Amino acid sequence: MQMKRSGRIHYIEARFDGPNCSVQGFTTRHEGVSRTPYNSLNLGTNTLDQPHSVEGNRSLLSRAFGITQEKLVTVKQVHGTDILVIDGPNDDVSHFLGIEGDAIITNQPGIMIGVCVADCTPILLIDQEKQIIAAVHAGWQGTASKLITKTVAGMKSLFECSPKKLQAIIGPCIGKCCYEVDMPVKQAFSQNGLAWETCTEQIGDGAWRLDLAAANRDLLLAAGVPADQIQVSGMCVSCHRELFFSYRRDGAETGRQMGFIMLKEH
Ligand SMILES: [Zn+2]
User: Fold this and answer.
1) How far apart are CA 96 and CA 76, in angstroms?
2) For 17-33, how does the pLDDT look when each residue is reduced to its tens digit (9 = 90+)?
3) How far is the CA of 80 from the centre of ligand 1 (A)?
4) I need a labelling partner for 161 at 20 to 30 A (CA). Which of 21, 123, 183, 215 fits?
5) Those residues with Cβ within 8 angstroms of residue 243's Cβ, 6 or more apart along the chain or in another chain
6) Of 218, 219, 83, whose CA–CA distance to 146 is shortest?
7) Distances (CA, A) of 123 to 7, 88, 100, 156, 219
8) Burial of 155: CB neighbours in 10 Å, binned 0-12, 13-18, 19+
9) How far is the CA of 246 from the centre of ligand 1 (A)?
């Protein structure tokens, strides 16, 4: 993964092996129009930033990849496990903005699907042969409730994607270095049968550091995605103030970066 620029957008480019049928990456906070503390490429509609600034930023992102803003789809993220599936043509996908969900799957080229994050894990999935893509937003709740597992299952049941053929990229999120969690998180993981010891480090009585990326990697492996087809960015958004927004570091008044993916038009 490396820094790249398209139009005004500075982003971390992620590449999949095989036919080059998609564009994808993770935005940084650079070169947007939002003012402090949302400076500057805040793409989250669910913040207290000026709506016209967010709109301007979403327009910058769309234009950087040759689409109009009506072709950029995000949903109302609620830390749940609902998945939006777009399996038919849409001239305008902006109406999906009000739909509650935390993952998007599509087989439609020319629309960009994205998840907005400040600490949570953005995960991008692709089946290159079948040309199916997904974007997943997994904080500790989405991770504990196995949203990534549900998304892989959805790609399999709806589009006959074999998990063995899937490729995944786990983007920049809060790292183990900066993510202290407590007993309710451990309990949620345990209740759902997730491994705890392999993705945490105990730092005190009832206090752990959690590696969200590792937990989601474990879930992808358990779902049948081969290890060599899972990339992990390893970048901590809290440690990289110059590149990313972080809710834990900055509090509620901060912006959102986006993990995005789009199938190319044929
Ligand atoms: Zn960190």
Assistant:
1) 8
2) 988 899 999 999 999 99
3) 25
4) 215
5) 28, 29, 30, 172, 235, 237
6) 219
7) 24, 23, 18, 17, 12
8) buried
9) 10
Question: Rounded to an integer, what distance in angstroms lies between the CA atom of residue 147 and that of residue 136?
Answer: 8
Distance 237 CA to ligand 1 centre (A): 7
For the cut 90, the answer to whether the pLDDT of residue 94 exceeds it is no
Cα distance from N-terminal residue to C-terminal residue, the chain: 25
Distance 175 CA to ligand 1 centre (A): 5
128-160 per-position pLDDT tens digit: 999 999 999 999 999 999 999 999 999 999 999
Q: For residue 241, report the distance from its CA to the centre of ligand 1, in Å.
A: 10
Å from CA of 5 to ligand 1 middle: 24
Nearest 5°: the CA angle 186, 189, 193 is: 135
> And the tokens for 228?
């060599």
Order of all β-strands in the sheet with 2-6:
2-6, 9-13, 22-27, 257-263, 112-117, 72-73
Residues with Cβ within 8 Å of residue 160, at least 6 apart in sequence? 130
Residue 73 · residue 113 · CB < 8 Å: yes
The model carries a pTM of: 0.97
- Measure the CA dihedral 39/43/45/50, to 10°: 30
Residue ranges and CATH numbers for the domains of the chain are: 2-174+229-263 (3.60.140.10)
Tokens for 263? 């199938």
